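Example 9 (inverse folding). The structure is encoded as follows.
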């Protein structure tokens, strides 16, 4: 396990009014095939995403609001997650300023054996309108943002996860994928068999393929985080199978309403090439 925090990472300027904070690259750690950046746009600034014919980009708005120009202009806030398939250019602009967590997969074919035979799809979703899975053990919640069914790629899988105060998982590992956790709010503890670290908002955690780990929220508040798997197909193994987390669909969104059912509500659609 390695923990990075945006308060100690260096910044670089990427265009007028755009600051890039590199959190994780193949140059800073062993080769993983994933790059993480925190982008901050000043008021009235814009940033153009230009994934190559072999790369994919995903981002989550952290603070502020913005507009994403594809075929038309969509408004985005901290509720929104966006997946950009290969060769899909899009421009993000903000009138009042915005920050986002961005993950790039430079070589999609390395992580998805069906690429490029199966063309991935653009998808943007409001996580508060998506169906919630609830852990029957303790009330933890999970919301899927990027999946193979929605985006037609197994290179990446992304979920939003919520731990109520004081809740924790048993020790487990993922066989076949690395996992990256970015804390959006709250604080807690992340542990492996031989290491334990306090974690807080802004931390990016990296767990190697097959590394045992567990998470625990502090007793005084909820902990909410994004988890990115690369690739998105793997096997979860529990140190003690009797303590395995069991996730059940609730049929509701995070606010207790019926989830979004169509592309207009979810903002997911097929790009035109």
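The amino acid assigned to each position is listed next.
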């Amino acid at each position: 396990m390695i923990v990075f925090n945006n308060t100690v990472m260096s910044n670089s300027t990427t265009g007028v009014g755009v600051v890039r904070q590199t959190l994780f690259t193949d140059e800073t750690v062993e080769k993983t095939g994933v790059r993480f950046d925190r982008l901050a746009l000043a008021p009235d600034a814009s940033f153009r995403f230009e994934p190559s014919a072999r790369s994919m980009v995903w981002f989550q708005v952290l603070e502020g609001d913005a507009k994403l120009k594809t075929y038309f202009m969509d408004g985005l806030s901290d509720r929104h997650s966006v997946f950009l398939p290969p060769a899909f250019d899009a421009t993000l602009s903000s009138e009042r300023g915005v920050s986002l967590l961005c993950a790039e997969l430079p070589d999609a074919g390395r992580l998805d054996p069906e690429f490029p035979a199966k063309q991935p799809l653009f998808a943007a979703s409001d996580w508060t309108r998506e169906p919630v899975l609830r852990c029957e053990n303790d009330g933890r919640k999970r919301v899927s943002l990027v999946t193979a069914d929605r985006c037609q790629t197994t290179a990446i899988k992304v979920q939003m996860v919520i731990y109520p105060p004081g809740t924790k998982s048993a020790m487990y590992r993922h066989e076949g994928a690395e996992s990256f956790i970015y804390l959006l709010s709250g604080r807690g503890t992340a542990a492996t068999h031989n290491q334990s670290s306090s974690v807080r908002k802004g931390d990016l955690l990296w767990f190697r393929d097959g590394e045992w780990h567990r998470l625990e929220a502090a007793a005084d508040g909820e902990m909410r985080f994004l988890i990115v798997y690369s690739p998105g197909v793997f096997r979860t193994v529990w140190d003690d199978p009797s303590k395995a987390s069991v996730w059940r669909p609730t049929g509701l969104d995070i606010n207790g309403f019926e989830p979004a059912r169509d592309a207009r509500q979810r903002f997911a659609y097929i790009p035109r090439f």
